[in-house]
Specification:
231 residues, globular
Length: 231
């Protein structure tokens, strides 16, 4: 079931209402939880340390997007679905300071991290960030939705995850094609899997191949739009 509310598509998945925000986040309005995946903070710094010239400012852009998602949703808790940090070598003083300042401005906001594969290599975030870290999966309050990093089906409920950085390609001829991030849902209830788009400003993407019955919501410049269900 899908409907439009407050300018963002809303659907039921795993027994929970999910609102899909144009900031590449999902919101559980019944619980006040904002769900984001794959920030990969420090990735640009990691690349620069390896001698790869990449643009700066990506941490600030990511944190601004998070601020915008909080303002749009009114969330009281953020749950990071893995890969908050990219690598240990990317946790620079600038990254630590930027997030610490962002966090200090929101002392009452609860933060939780469901550890992903990059988090295990980078280590848990600094204690001053005030992030509660747990292994996957984390059950949403209703009990039918499991929050994870890896999109692996579970008999215990529908899984909402990240990791894959899903995207779709729109357009016809090669030079007219546009790759856009997307939300991807396959099934509902136990065994179902939903995947959030990568949230970070400096992340790659992987084009998904929808199967029959999949639900795809593309994040376009003017908002989130449902694509026709695959036949």
């Amino acid at each position: 079931m899908t409907r439009q509310t407050e300018g963002a598509p809303e659907l039921v998945f795993g027994g929970e209402r999910l609102r899909l925000l144009p900031q590449r986040a999902a919101f559980l309005p019944d619980h006040g939880w904002l769900l984001v995946a794959d920030l990969h903070l420090g990735k640009a710094h990691s690349f620069r340390r390896l001698g790869v010239p990449v643009p700066g400012g990506t941490t600030a852009e990511t944190l601004q997007r998070l601020t915008d998602a909080l303002a749009a949703s009114g969330a009281t808790q953020v749950v990071f679905l893995g890969d908050l940090l990219h690598a240990a070598r990317g946790v620079s003083a600038a990254v630590v300071d930027a997030f610490a300042r962002w966090r200090a401005a929101r002392p009452r906001l609860a933060l939780a991290l469901v550890r992903g594969n990059h988090d295990r290599g980078a280590g848990d975030p600094p204690a001053a960030w005030g992030v509660r870290c747990v292994d996957e999966p984390l059950a949403a309050p209703g009990g039918g939705l499991l929050l994870a990093h890896h999109p692996a089906p579970s008999d215990g409920g529908a899984v909402l995850a990240g990791h894959l950085h899903p995207a779709v390609t729109l357009g016809g001829r090669a030079h007219d094609r546009l790759r856009l991030p997307c939300f991807h849902f396959r099934g509902d209830g136990p065994g179902a899997v939903g995947v959030l788009p990568a949230f970070g400003a400096f992340t790659g993407s992987h084009v998904v191949q929808p199967a029959q019955g999949d639900r795809i919501f593309v994040v376009a410049p003017d908002g989130v739009h449902a694509l026709p269900v695959a036949a």
